[in-house]
Design goal:
By secondary structure, this protein is an alpha/beta fold. It has one domain (7-244): 3-Layer(aba) Sandwich (UDP-N-acetylmuramoyl-L-alanine:D-glutamate ligase). 35% of the residues lie in helices and 19% in strands. The chain has helices at residues 21-31, 59-70, 86-96, 122-130, 141-148, 155-166, 210-223, 228-244; strands at residues 7-15, 35-47, 50-56, 77-80, 103-105, 136-137, 172-175, 185-189, 194-198. α2 packs parallel to α3 and α7 (210-223) packs across α8. The longest helix has 17 residues, at 228-244. It is globular.
Length: 268
């Protein structure tokens, strides 16, 4: 009998196109050697050209999913993504409070196509209830601006936003700088010191799922015993490879390739 791998719980929305959300989380976790579990908070009608609609899962159903997992399979790490509504944020944060496992919070607000994925009041609930529970918060620039009100146009702005976000409760904040011009720099901040993670700009249209993949990879590496800076470094390397291997899908933006480390070449 094989030994049980570390277990990681993804709490997020479903992407019917398979590139982001719960689907991206579970693919990432599988490749990185942990057992992925899921609590679905929303169902999207989504493909490569956009999000045509989304439906929130009732908060009682979210609580029931969480209770089912947490009472039987204690996770070694948790990742949250699209939580859709303030009521769902309240349900999730209430059940995660006091959990000893590290929690990675990806404050998903809009899709890659610019479609809103949250109802009114959700970001305020995330700020008040979920950020104080976060081991690592992973906003992109738009999300960092929404959460802080700080306009970010350069790396100094990223640092100011990271400081403001840390003051809201997360132990670490990773502000992702990929939307600034030039080669991207991500900034990891612990309330006093910052670690820069510079990278090379990858010219690719097929980047759907990058944020979900990065946050899930961080959670997976934390579950495997890494500290936060090492987990972020490993996750950055993984998502960079996934972006480089991204492929066309449908008529719009294709996904990153979560299986880039294990995929066999397709024979002609």
């Amino acid at each position: 009998m094989s030994s049980t791998p570390p277990c990681v719980l993804a709490i997020a929305g479903s992407d019917s196109g398979g590139g982001a959300g719960i689907q991206a989380d579970l693919k990432t976790m599988l490749v990185l050697g942990v057992h992925g579990m899921s609590v679905v908070c929303a169902v999207t009608a989504q493909n490569s050209v956009g999000v045509q609609g989304y439906w929130e899962v009732p908060p009682d159903a979210v609580r029931a999913q969480l209770a089912s997992v947490l009472t039987d399979i204690p996770p070694s790490a948790v990742k949250t993504g699209m939580l859709a509504s303030a009521a769902i944020v309240e349900a999730v944060s209430g059940m995660l409070a006091g959990l000893p496992a590290p929690i990675v919070v990806d404050p998903v607000a809009v899709s890659k196509h610019g479609d809103s994925l949250l109802s009114g009041g959700t970001l305020e609930a995330v700020t008040a209830l979920l950020l104080p529970l976060a081991t690592v918060l992973t906003p992109n620039l738009h999300e960092a601006e929404l959460l802080t009100g700080i306009r970010i146009t350069d790396e100094a702005g990223m640092r100011r936003a990271a400081e403001a976000l840390c003051a809201l409760g997360p132990r670490w904040v990773l502000v992702k700088g990929g939307h600034l011009p030039g080669n991207p720099v991500d900034l990891l901040f612990d309330g006093s010191d910052a670690v820069r993670f510079p990278g090379q700009r990858i010219v690719s249209r097929h980047t759907h799922g990058t944020g979900c993949t990065l946050a899930s990879a961080i959670a997976s590496y934390l579950a495997l015993g890494m500290d936060v800076p090492a987990a972020v470094e490993g996750a950055k390397e993984f998502v960079t490879g996934a972006i480089e291997a991204g492929f066309p899908l449908g008529a719009g933006i294709g996904p990153v390739d979560h299986a880039w480390r294990i995929r066999q070449p397709v024979s002609g």
